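Support case: nicotinamide-adenine-dinucleotide complex. Customer-provided input:
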Amino acid sequence: MFQGSDRIVPGADGNSAAGPKDRKGQTLSMNRIIVTGGAGFIGSAVVRHIIGGTEDAVCVVDKLTYAGNPENLAPVSGSPRFTFVKADICDREAVDPVFSSFRPTHVMHLAAESHVDRSIDGPGEFIRTNIVGTYTLLEAARKYFSGLDEAGKAGFRFHHISTDEVYGDLEGPGDFFRETTPYAPSSPYSASKASSDHLVRAWNRTFGLPAIITNCSNNYGPYHFPEKLIPLIILHALDGKELPVYGSGLQIRDWLYVEDHARALYLAATRGKPGETYNIGGHNEKTNIEVVKTICSLLDELSPRPDGKKYEEQIVHVKDRPGHDARYAIDPSKIARELGWKPAETFESGIRKTVVWYLRNRDTWCAHVLNGGYKMERLGTGGGNI
Ligand code: NAD
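Agent response - structure generated as follows:
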């Protein structure tokens, strides 16, 4: 699948991470970016954006867990600027050589265990990857950074990608998560992400590692693993299965189209200020039941049920997730003001694109993912190994 699989692109000579030089010894402006978790949902959107929209080179470091899928990178895997290394971010012996050979100017750290329901069934892997893995990567980056010359140090960035779930629940309808909102995570997933955010901030403050953190709201879009709400509902609906809605379905999430997030992340990594946090969101607050009903009506239009009935008839309310947060909503004004980012998609345009993508890729990408062992079963009831 990967033409660049397990190959490491050599970096610039010497100790500079400022990029390769032209014949006159001038540094070229191309960045070399390590993307951890680049075979996942958001990571692959970031890689497709960088390879497709910039001159930069990318080295994906990914363990290829159940959530990592080489097919997500198929559109760019033939590029000479793309490299893939299969490695666990907790494995320092595997991570160090990536830094010394690829000589990154930037690290964009997305590798994580990301599904709240799985963190309830088995928190251990979340502690390992999200906390120990981030620590391991920070230490590898710190060692590499300390060996750079002044120009290399000035250009180097470590960008940690996190979630708005670290802030916990919002009370009033007019409240928003801001960069200054205190952390109050509710699930093992969000607690592990909060821990990793604290580590990154400490490595910036204590060791001077030029780190940036972004906290984003719920993403949706193409290549989303079907255990998450939106793809699960689309595929269940088409298969004639029940559409499970947790509890009342009145939990509010702030939805962002994944390609808008990928653009924001690239801006934050390349133009963000070290030591700063940026919240990313699209002002698209929807209740879960609204999201499910929107998908149903799009499917009624684009792929009607053979029996002529409405997809909404398949909706069932199931027992709520333990510790389920009621509302998340982001105030993205800082990244808009300081980095000039704004989303291109509304929820209405993004969800239509997403449903169309799943209809087009149902027999290919979706079928391959589902053949890989995941059977769209209910997770997150707390019934995992203790
Ligand atoms: P994902 O589960 O789709 O992908 C995670 C990727 O990380 C996979 O490719 C997986 O193979 C890889 N990975 C997991 N453990 C690893 C390890 N130990 N070593 C190397 N690679 C490993 O996740 P996603 O939804 O794309 O999320 C990416 C990041 O963005 C995560 O850090 C997540 O916390 C954050 N985030 C996600 C959302 C969202 O809505 N999905 C919102 C905000 C922030």
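The first helix runs from residue 41 to 53.

Case will auto-close in a few days if no follow-up is received.
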